[in-house]
Amino acid sequence: MGLFTGLKQSVRRVTDKLFTSEEPKRIGIYGPPNAGKTTLANRIARDWTGDAIGPESHVPHETRRARRKENVEIERDGRTVTIDIVDTPGVTTKVDYEEFLDHDMEKEDAVRRSREATEGVAEAMHWLREDVDGVIYVLDSSTDPFTQVNTMLIGIIESQDLPVLILANKTDLEDSSVQRIRNAYPQHETIPLSALEGENMDEVYTKIAEYFG
Question: Does the model's pTM come out above 0.90?
């Protein structure tokens, strides 16, 4: 009888956990083209799952469709935070095919890529308005963060009342200035990192757990 009772209790605990646990939160990685979003997404995915999400490139708009890595479990301070990472295309107000000609592409390929990138921007905006529970906003700390696109996107994120963590990426570059980003968006906390070099990722993971756990 004791064994049977114990078995029922064990089954009940598993069943309760199965039907009461929350779905992983969908966290969108946003920002302008070439800010290092996919590099960051790959860094997180490799650190916690061993797999990458997508190819990285110095060519703008390498990510032209949102990519999703599900059930990424991040362990911080004795607890586990499970999220789905959504690596989104870089958002810009205009995608010009001539951008790609500068990277030794044929015109036909450049036009096709610019069309795909434009569609990717629309997809990223759809995810932002409909399908994410929080945002990691990645900025290149070696460039001016105070742009129309960044101001617009952060405004949309705020209007959606989504938790947002701003990351000042590329601190390994000589022209990096984290303070410039903090000055541009003082209403949000800014965390420095180099996703490429893996610098300060411990703090990034702590903040992900704090913001999205």
Answer: no
